[in-house]
Amino acid sequence: EIVLTQSPATLSLSPGERATLSCRASASVDIYLAWYQQKPGQAPRLLIYDTSYRATGIPARFSGSGSGTDFTLTISSLEPEDFALYYCQQRRNWPLTFGGGTKVEI
Amino acid sequence: EVQLLDSGGGLVQPGGSLRLSCAASGFTFNNYVMTWVRRTPGKGLEWVSTISGSGDKTYYVDSVKGRFTISRDNSENTLFLQMNSLRVEDTAIYYCARDRTTVTSYWFDPWGQGTLVTVSS
Lengths: 106, 121
Fold this sequence. Notes:
The complex is a heterodimer.
Chain A: E1 4-7, E2 10-12, E3 19-25, E4 33-38, E5 45-49, E6 53-54, E7 62-67, E8 70-75, E9 85-90, E10 97-98, E11 102-105
Parallel strand pairs in A: 2-11
Antiparallel strand pairs in A: 1-3, 3-8, 4-5, 4-9, 5-6, 7-8, 9-10, 9-11
Chain B: E1 3-7, E2 10-12, E3 18-25, E4 34-40, E5 44-51, E6 58-60, E7 68-73, E8 78-83, E9 92-99, E10 108-111, E11 115-119
Parallel strand pairs in B: 2-11
Antiparallel strand pairs in B: 1-3, 3-8, 4-5, 4-9, 5-6, 7-8, 9-10, 9-11
């Protein structure tokens, strides 16, 4: 099983600041990594897939990078609605796995 | 508009059973792989099970193999998760999710609103 480790667990920032979230895989997932955002009481929402492709309707301030075992989600300038939980997910191998999450808080 | 409506959750005793449903609308259901994902308080998101568009291929996380069964009724645009021999650790919000496109990717978009399953005596 590929284990995804997200860091930091919590990121305390202010609106307008840049957020950098990390996801490290225990084995190579090639480019097969996605990022999701989840707000309290809501379902997760796909942000980024295949490392760097934005899903439909996702603003350009969200970007993804990396390959192999190290990946980054960057939010260039935080908007108030971006304060949420973020998860990474790999589809390189079964079982599909998620990281433990990073909470972006004010 | 694409919609997924999860239902069927509730409180059940350890060893009991529940059947979750996910009613889909706004897209051609049988063209898409469908998946169940759960969110637990301690572990975050966990992939549970996936089924192909035709229903002939199914996949499960090891912790539910032999206890949970994923199925679909393409004539009714509905996804199911039959959960037997439930354990306390199965307590979670269960979400159904559609594959992002008709070309299988195992990226989940969109998701249902979730249904809460509580296993407790």
